[in-house]
Amino acid sequence: MPTPVVLVAGLHGAARTAAVEQLLADHPGSVAIHHDLREVTHGRVQRSVRDTTGVLDTAEVRLAHGCVTCTVREDLLPQLVMLAPRSALLVVDLWDSVEPRSVAEAVDCDEARDVLRLTAVLTALDAEDMPEDITRGEPLSEVGKPAAAGDRRYLAEVLARQLEYATGLVLHGGDEDDQDLSRRVLAHLAPISPIHTVHALPPVTGAALCTGELAERVDPATAQLPYDAQTDEIVTMVWRSRRPLHPGRLFEAVDELVVESVRARGRFWLATRPDQLLAWDSVAGIVSVEDAGPWLAALPEAAWDLVSPARRLAAALDWDPERGDRVQHLVFTGPDLDIDRFRALLDSCLLTEAEERAGLDAWTRYDDPFAAILTLRENV
Fold this sequence. Notes:
Elements: E1 3-9, H1 13-26, E2 31-36, E3 44-51, E4 54-62, H2 68-83, E5 90-93, H3 100-107, E6 116-126, H4 130-133, H5 155-165, E7 168-172, H6 176-189, E8 195-197, H7 211-218, E9 229-231, E10 234-241, H8 247-259, E11 263-270, E12 273-283, E13 286-294, H9 309-317, E14 328-335, H10 339-347, H11 353-358, H12 360-363, H13 370-379
Parallel strand pairs: 1-5, 1-6, 2-5, 6-7, 7-8
Antiparallel strand pairs: 2-3, 3-4, 9-10, 10-14, 11-12, 11-14, 12-13
């Protein structure tokens, strides 16, 4: 039977180490592998393997290209395959700023499936630091946590992806108030993810995960987005509409929407781009708008068989006789959000009834400030 593999991610090194040590203690015969990426920008990575007795092996890995993808492909996977026959559990202790999705999908590959089975993706979080870190917009390069040369990601951006992709979250450290605040924040940011403590970790030796299903939980077209909620000062607001958005008015509203929310995401469409499903992703004041492909309503029915069942189900749940699956579905989370003002601001970005009646020919002539951003991303 394939050896179980659990990934442990997290920007907070002490929390991650505590979770890894507990997994080793809970599962006799297990080993943990870690790649230290502090020198990855110079093409060097330090690999270590340990069990409950201490470090078993260390080596310096030199890469043709200093990046996480190369580290996984050239060293992590071969090491896991080599260690699997004599290990009860393989624990992958990911470097601080590594996002678990790419590693999970690399482990869940055809060539290793007879030897390895991915069983859990945990993100360890420091209860004292997490509520503040999700608001920090510093680049990783400025805080000493880049995962590759030229890494342009931001600290809060990486933290959001680590905790939203995981199958389980592990809180460590802090006092009772820190733990309580972290749980309240996580209930808004990742409401479907179970929260554990280091001393009560979830089972990690069961059936293999399907990384396709994990991806569908966070991909824009199928994401399981948070719902309306308020916990003391923390507010999550869901905004939905069928009407198209005016690109100019939405662009003018972006700064206010982003600055006053800590986390926002979802899918939307512009009157100038009726066939494109656009993804909105913002955290700690950093916003990204990307083309996530066509709406199903823009495709011939014969092409629907080429998309996943989850995508078809998401479209069916949002289906409208006139608009198809086109929908504005954005979710904003922040402290003391003024829900009424946010809704009014977003509603003001929709086409008016007169603009809607003018039709597509008129819409395509609107100035579209998003065009430069989307064209740039398409060419990257």
